[in-house]
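Usage

Read records sequentially. Each one opens with the input sequence:
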Amino acid sequence: MRGVAEDMDGFEGEASTASMVSGASSPYQPTTEPVMQSYGLRGLRCDTDYLRSVYGILKCIQVPLALFSFICIETIMECAPCEGLYFFEFVSCSTFVVTGVLLLMFSLNLHHRIPQINWDLTDLINTGLSTLFFFIASIILASLNHKTGAEISAVVFGFLATIAYAVNTFLAFRKWKESQVSQNLRQTREYMRARSESRDVECRPEI
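and closes with the structure output:
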């Protein structure tokens, strides 16, 4: 019995030694290093290339122009009638918020994390509507102007913002058209490649 026990002890010792050696040499052994995962706002970086581009520069111009327009209209204490002033106030505030959010999204590359949204089309719609609304609001405020400094400043900033948004609308439309053309070409190439592969399979003789 003692010999059998010694043989069993020797076998267990060899097995444990072999398992330790195989575990040390195995590429699938567990590691104690923490796995780094990106959550929340980790990994954000400022895209200086976008800020230096025409689109980034225009966004950086539009945001302060909309803000200055809103500040000037807020300093007006008396109005008669007030509908034009309220409309200009709404337009300047809304465009400042929306354009500021888009500038933040593009400059930090946050839009790449939401690929489900067509950001070229989103920017085109925003700049187009902002151009139209700023132009209408500036025309109405200029026609109801009481020649005060705040109203004149608001009208000037409003028309400057209209020009900035109009230029951005033209460039955004051209960029969107180019993206649509490239997407159609890519889909056409994929379709033609799929057709050619299917024809090769059909022409291949059966074994």
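Summary fields computed downstream for this record:
- The chain is about 75% helix and 0% strand.
- The longest helix spans residues 149-203.
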